[in-house]
Amino acid sequence: MAVLPIRITGEPVLHTIAGPVVDFDAQLRTLVDDMFETMEAAPGVGLAAPQVGVGLRLFVYNWVDDDEVLWRGVAINPELWLAPIPAGEADEDEESEGCLSIPSERWALRRAPKVMLRATDIDKKVFEIEAGGWLARIFQHEYDHLDGTLYSDRLDHAQSKAVAKVIRKSGWGVPGQSWMPGEDDLEG
Fold first, then answer.
1. What is the rounded average pLDDT of the residues 165-174?
2. What mean pLDDT do residues 135-156 have?
3. Which end of the chain is more exposed for a tag (fewer CB within 10 A), N or C?
4. Catalytic residue (one of 94, 142, 183, 187)
5. Using CA atoms, how far apart are residues 187 and 105, in angstroms rounded to an integer?
6. What whole-number distance in Å separates Cα of residue 51 and Cα of residue 149?
């Protein structure tokens, strides 16, 4: 297994709709293993293939909920159904999220409180997970990556302007930017 560089906003693969996974082969297994290792080294709770420069519809996740239940897996060619997103302002304390492709930043974003994820695992078995709370947020965030959407694309106008300023000041927003978990300390 290997830790892979994580692409930063501006890299075209992050802003493009990912293609379906067709080949369930040794190369896919290696990619999934490398993505788990990269996510853990970052550290993160989810990582989509476009974030490591691969334009395929898959993401990995690893999160322990309040009941100490470990949610860990890979979602290949996922479908995601969302409950209605509640109206109102996002709560800065309860609804802030970050992204490994916009390192060190967190912004409040209102998301659907519940989702249904249907996907295929590495062994071609179809599964479904009904998720709420942070697991639902993780699934929405990673699924967005597969459609070429970063969470910053969903922010309200004022926050969108603020994140655009951070991206500009950091020299991001152009192709060729990445960081290496375990070597670069961009999350601090």
1. 93
2. 96
3. C
4. 142
5. 8
6. 11
Closest to 29 measured CA to CA, from 58, 8, 50? 58
Structure tokens at 172: 């991001």
Letter string b/e over residues 101-114, b meaning 16 or more CB atoms within 10 A of that residue's CB = bbbebebbbbbbee
Full DSSP string of 93-142: TTSEEEETTEEEEEEE----SEEEEEEE-TTS-EEEEEEEHHHHHHHHHH
Could you give the CA distance from residue 131 to residue 54 in angstroms, rounded to a whole number? 26
Residue 105 confidence (pLDDT): 87
Identify whether 142 is a catalytic site residue.
Answer: yes
pLDDT of residue 179: 96
Q: What is the pLDDT of residues 23-59, one digit of tens each?
A: 999 999 999 999 999 999 999 999 999 999 999 999 9
* Bridge partners for 47 per DSSP: 60
What average pLDDT does the structure give for the chain?
94
The stretches of the chain forming alpha helices (DSSP H) are 26-41, 133-146, 157-170
In angstroms, the CA 14 to CA 83 distance is 25
Residue 159: DSSP 8-state: H
* pLDDT band (50, 70, 90) for residue 188: very low
Query: How many Cα atoms are found within 13 Å in the side-chain-facing hemisphere of 119?
Result: 26
